[in-house]
Structure formats: C-alpha cells, structure tokens
Design a protein that fits this description.
The chain is mainly α and about 200 residues long. It has helices spanning about 5-30, 35-45, 50-55, 60-70, 70-85, 90-105, 105-120, 135-150, 160-180, 190. The radius of gyration is 19 Å and the shape is elongated. The relative contact order is 0.12.
C-alpha cells in the first residue's frame, strides 16, 4: 500500500529531526571545523546525498542546530528566575539543581552547552557573538550574582567573570558527559559553591 502524502511528510519531518539531533551530538564532540559531512552522514546512518536534501551545507545545518541550542525557553526560564522575588542564594540553588538535573538526564543538553561554548572559541565563527546563547545566559546569571553580592551571599568580583566561571564549570561537566562513561558528577550544592559564600 503506497504511503499517503501525510505519512510522507511525517517521515520527512522525522528524518530532519533525527539529522538535527544526531548532528548536534556529533558537532559537540568534534567541533565545527573538525566535522566532515561524510563522517557526519555515516554517524547519523544516512547517505551524504540525503543530508544535502535537507540542508544545503554544513554551515546551514550548524546554524539551524545553533538556533535549537539558543533555546528561547531556557533563556526565558533563566530570565524569569532572575526576576523572582526570592533571595539570590535560592535562585542560584534552583539554577544549579536544574542544570545538574539536565546534565544527568539529557545528553542533548550537554551537547547544547558544549556547542554554544565552542562557538565562542571557533576562529572565523560565522555566528555573531552578539546573538550567542552564552551572552544571554551570562547576562541573567550576572544579574543574580549582583543581587547576591548586595545580599552578601555571593562572593565578590566582576559579575560577568563569575558568570563565566560558573558556566565554565558547567561546560567542563558537559564535556565529561559527552566524552566519558564514568565520572563523578557535580551535585547542585557543588555547583552552587562556585558562587555562594561559605555559610560556616
């Protein structure tokens, strides 16, 4: 029995989604410069020609993956957290719990963290730094840090540098998630201590 046009469209959408999410992991492990389309197609389990049916080039594919990484919901959640009428310590603890939970449960989250950080390091990046996911994350994390510094619960120093330090630790554990099978993961409390003063 021939496939209906609706079923054909579903298959196309499923294939496109598979390419995007498998490629996200591949790019995260190999970087943009280290990714060859032939190797990527082999990893996904499709022909190179099939990949080009869905995306014109490696750059187009990566840009679309970057849009997925630049997840509005995650940024909105962090923005909302930064505006809640609760202490900065509670905000940092909540952020740390969420990040650790996602790293533990979702390999694609680890890939997102890795890719968005790698874009900052790629030479001749074709994605504008002003649109990076990291800049939004840093902005709202820095806002929470500044609140905590006023409340005397967060260590002193540049809020942007502290945000960078916090997300660098997250990046390190995202890499461990992608490249190793056994590692001692951070707890939310461990991650929070990157910013919070010792209560003792």
């Amino acid at each position: 029995m021939p496939k209906t046009p609706e079923r054909c469209q579903e298959i196309r959408e499923e294939t496109r989604k598979k390419i995007l999410y498998d490629a996200m992991l591949f790019f995260a492990r190999n970087g943009f410069a280290g990714t060859k389309i032939s190797d990527l197609a082999d990893y996904i389990g499709i022909g190179q020609g099939t990949l080009y049916i869905y995306f014109k080039s490696k750059e187009d594919l990566f840009k679309e993956i970057f849009v997925i990484c630049n997840n509005d919901k995650e940024i909105k959640d962090l923005k909302m957290l930064s505006c809640l009428p609760i202490s900065a310590k509670k905000k940092i603890n909540k952020l740390s719990e969420t990040v650790i939970s996602k790293l533990d449960q979702d390999e694609n989250y680890a890939a997102k963290v890795t890719l968005t950080t790698q874009v900052l390091f790629e030479k001749d990046s074709f994605i504008s730094e002003s649109t990076t996911y990291q800049s939004e994350i840093y902005k709202y994390t820095a806002k929470i840090i500044e609140q905590g510094q006023k409340e005397k619960s967060v260590v002193g120093g540049s809020s942007i540098k502290l945000a960078d330090f916090y997300w660098s630790v997250v990046y390190l554990y995202a890499l461990k998630k992608l490249f190793t099978t056994k590692y001692e993961t951070l707890t939310a409390a461990d991650l929070g201590r990157v910013l919070l003063k010792d209560d003792n």
